[in-house]
Description:
The chain is α+β, with helices and mostly antiparallel strands.
Amino acid sequence: MYIVVVQNLPKILLPYICVAKYYLTCQCTLDSMDDILQQASLTNIILRLPKMEKLLILLIIVIGFASASMRIERSIDLSAAHSLISDSKLPGEITPNNYTIDLRPNIEESTFSGKIKIILTWQEPTNQITLHAAHDLEIAESDIKLSKIGMDETIHHDSTKENYPKEITIRRVDRMIKKPCLVIHLQNALKQGTVAELEIDFNGQIWETSEGMFKGSYPDNGGEKKNYLATHMRPNFARRLFPCFDEPSYKVPFIVSIARPKNYTTLFNTPVKSSDEIEDNYVIDHFEKTLPMSTFTFGFVTSQLALLNRTDFSDPHLKKLCIRVYARPELHSDLDKTRVYERIEKSLLSIKTYLGADFPLEKLDVVALPSFSTVKPADNWGLIVYKESEMLQNSYYLIAQELVYQWLGAWATPYWWSDSHINKAIAGFLSAQTAIELDGGAEFEGKWPMTILYSIYYEFSKRYPHSRITGMKQETICSKTELVLRMLNFTLGADTFRKGLQKFFVDREFKTFFADDVWEALTKQAHLDNKLCPNVTVGAIATSWIQKDRIPTVSVIRNYEKKTAKLSQKVYLRERPHDVPEQDKMLWWIPIITITEDKMDFDNRTPKLWMKKVKEVEIKDLPSADKFIIVNPEEIGPFPVNYDEKNWNLLSLYLQTPKGRETIPVYTRAKLLHDAWNLAYAGQLSFATAFNMTLFMKSERDHLVWNPVFTMIDHIGRHIDMSNVHKKFETYVRTMLTPLYEELGPEGDENEENWRRNLRSLSKTFLCRAGYKPCIEEAQVEYKKWMESPSPDEGNPVANQYICPVFKWGTMEEWEFGLHRVINFPSSRKQNERTYLLKTLAGCPNHSDKILRLLNITILEQNANFTENDIFLIFSMLSGGSSGYTTLFNFLQDNWEAIKIKFTNKTNLWDSLISTATGVFTTQEGYDMVKQLYVQRQGEFGSAEHIIEKSLKNIKEETKWSDENLPVIEK
């Protein structure tokens, strides 16, 4: 509604946008609205309206324009990527100079009290102070004090002396209803340049969840419970601990004192300066003044964790830096085995060298915190808090990532959350570079960046990216930005890229930055080093990639007689139909890097040219018609490449030779295979060509090249498993995987490399799915031990890997045994074991009688041992294969009336049933089945009417794919 109203507002009302913004920040009441409008010297049109209509118009304008008014136009606007951070900016008329904080936690009672003094400067005249304070933070509003200190002469240039009283009168204090904000209204507006001290007392609860200040516990070796306090302020939880300007752009020093029990230690951002005893066996620690920092980097841990001793530091700079690791004493020996101090030291030196800047602090505390439940470590400045399991990983990447944040994030800070994607992306890129430098990337097993690259390909090629998991959008955009940085590192040159980042960092230390600042620094260095044309900017290149939830594909069509090729770009789409709006208008800056068979120089990453947001370009001077070319080797840019059929065949033949597999690097071999299969799946390449590209796999043994094969076996197998081609496809899978599995052997030794163990496991899993008899027989032998157990409900002695093959290829008796284990599952055992068993019972069988038995007992008989959540889970698992969803469809058709009665008043179950039973077919036969049901039962679907209509539309599209591709795949 608001869009219609705003579009029809007369132009004379546009000045009221500023009033709407004023309303947004000060939360004026209906009674004060007339004063605000009159003070704004605007027209009397709205003034004559009744109060509620007046409020409605203001709210309409607010909704329509609030987001635009908060944008920082200099920056690449990625606020949508951070939609989970629901926050609006403070007015900005007053800024903090520093905080003095006294915190008194009571661990036993899970409460805390505190006092804060904030030195404020008036950047603009105003009579109110707005700052953040969570609603659960109790504030003694009547005791708030504001005292004038003086004037900031750099802001206020008037030499006339003002005679303000030292105590400034506070008229009232408001807590915003829908925002965690405290608004202090003053009797009079204070002038620009005024400096004053605000003093607030507060109390709060210590929480169990890892937000703000929270409490945790763990048992020591003797079983005694040990409590601790810790903080997690990112992104905006500081307001839960004390009133503040809780935005990353406010970087000021903190002077902090924190109370603790005598037998505890408190670690803070800075070292302890002094300590005083206070009542009740408590001590208060006074810490050194911090450097200017944002509230989200504030942090402390109060605990009885013990220091892990380490004294030998080799680097002169690190001798000035106090590095300390804290953990439970029981964990110390394990941490020693992971060489934790050495990993921290080496990572620090690597990052310091890359950024060209020393570590900015005098000390760094690293804590392994028991029962710490956050997704990621808490990277407070000078104090990094990990889960114990994270600290025990022998990982350089995880250590390096948090250390990078000490420089980039804490020292140089994103101005707003819409810029944090670039911060996280740089941290990810530098962490990977550090890990590769220090251990050759062994912990990645070569999967960086391929793992994140392939996930980006799949997500951004959907019709509706992130439609199922909105929180994924943050991660995928950060990952894509990291890949863009990697592309720039290659195309600009590693030296130019590093110097550009160093210049950016030197310019922004102790300050905030926008994403554009990064691109500008890289542009200047690229121009200086003649790596970009003077009229080209890195910002233009990066923006073309980051602002779209899409990636391009480049098609290469060679003219073999003229030794040229025409390259064209378009949006890459896998899911059908390819009906993405305005896809023809989407264009990217794409680096064209080529390798030719007669010049196999994979170290040359200089672009032959850039596609400067144009649809087509031509490249010349290509080799003769019997030589292949490769575009975008080593996945330098995050985009797939298609070729004409002849070039694909040249590549396939070359890869089948030992020389081909030796001279073409592993990333490029993986890319060629991955691109071919995905382009075929998307309908842009013949499956004949894609299958030809797998011929070299009979001799390929590198796990990185095999990884995309398993993914595509899964994707294609699921898509065609209703067709007659599927049995031939399973034969193909067995033929391809059997030599690999037999060469790897059924078991490895304990010192075997992890990648080899994973490759064996994947090979075995997919062979089992395809009916490899030795696998099935081995699974049945193991499963029989469970069946012969005297007490089968007390535990499952069979490894999970054996259960699905038995349920898929085994007897009805074996499957029934599993069903009874679910029905009789004791409450004393872990419920996730029952969940796994139920998932395999439903999702693995390829015989309808097993699935019908499960549907009868759960839906028609309504066995009390199965909950509604169990039925949802069964539906979900049945969607994974044609045996499941076809059987479910027939079950629905045969028992329509009974199911309708059972699902009366269970709309969600009914909708899920219709979606699974009708929405996954891919052939004309499936379309005809669903269409017949729709016609036969039209008007009876209720809430699921739109679901089956959507199913018919999607199946029609998939049918086109099947008609085109199944004959090719079969041949």
